Amino acid sequence: MGEQAVPFRAGFVAVVGKPNVGKSTLVNHFVGRKVSIVSPRPQTTRRRILGILNRPDAQIVFVDTPGIHKPKYKLGERMVEAAVGALPDADLILFVVDASKPPNAEDRHIADLLTKEAHAPIILVLNKMDKLPPEKVKPHTEAYWQLVPNHADWMMTNAVKGHNCDKLLEMILARLPESPPYFPQEQITDQPERLFAAEIIREKALLHTYQEVPHGIGVAIERWEERPNGVLYIAATIYVERETHKGIVIGEGGRMLKKIGQQAREELELWFGRRIFLELWVKVREDWRNNPSFFQQLES
Fold first, then answer.
1. 91: in domain
2. Phi-psi domain of 213 (left: phi exceeds 0; alpha: psi -120 through 50; beta: other)
3. How far is CA 268 from CA 162, 222, 263, in A?
4. pLDDT (tens digit per residue) in 2-23
5. CATH number where 273 lies
6. How many angstroms separate the CA atoms of 40 and 26, rounded?
7. What pLDDT, in 10s, does the model give residues 87-138?
8. What are phi and psi of 156, to 5 degrees?
């Protein structure tokens, strides 16, 4: 008798946790390319984003979600709704925590949500293990493990360097159902190109201004043109909530905006594999995070 074929597995893996614990970094590591932007600023991810890992034996659809937090704006409320909404339909849930710190009220709140909303198996991902002092390993690990429904399986990781991510991936694969793939083999994300470009611009703006400008940066793609010479022309507006923030994003003599634009263009050229002409403006839109019709426009 010949060898039995290995069954193909496919499923949706919801990646949840509070802001800034490394969810997007973890998803990008598994997919092998950036599909979610990252920055030192909490609440960088604002909507659900799919990152698709295709293998000969499996298709893992990671659902990167916004950090679950106590929202202060309508945008924050929508972000939390998006994260919680990913739980009921998931085949598996990764509850990602910052293991270098003990659980806080946000972690306990998420654990309660998992108890109420989750129907799938849960893996506790104790991320940022490189920042965990040896004497805190046991107390922090046990404190998080006690939080999780049914005392789920767990794995310590360092998503930035990929430590133990191979072991975590094997745990994920073992828990996925047998299923045909949900997406074509060449697809790695569900993000439209325009939205991805806007996210890369927002990432660069956050990276360079996060100490001076709070979360209120939004990006709208105004024009997207294929030029006859093969260049892709992208015009985008960076929205901020205050005049002082506008000055910071533009910088003295326009230097900060130029730096943001140059780094965004270079990364987008690598992603799209073509030359790009990127033009940026900065505009003030006060309190836009409390304006649902406006922040929905940014995603259309």
1. yes
2. beta
3. 24, 16, 9
4. 455 789 999 999 999 999 999 9
5. 3.30.300.20
6. 15
7. 888 999 999 999 999 999 999 999 999 988 888 999 999 999 999 899 999 9
8. -85, 135
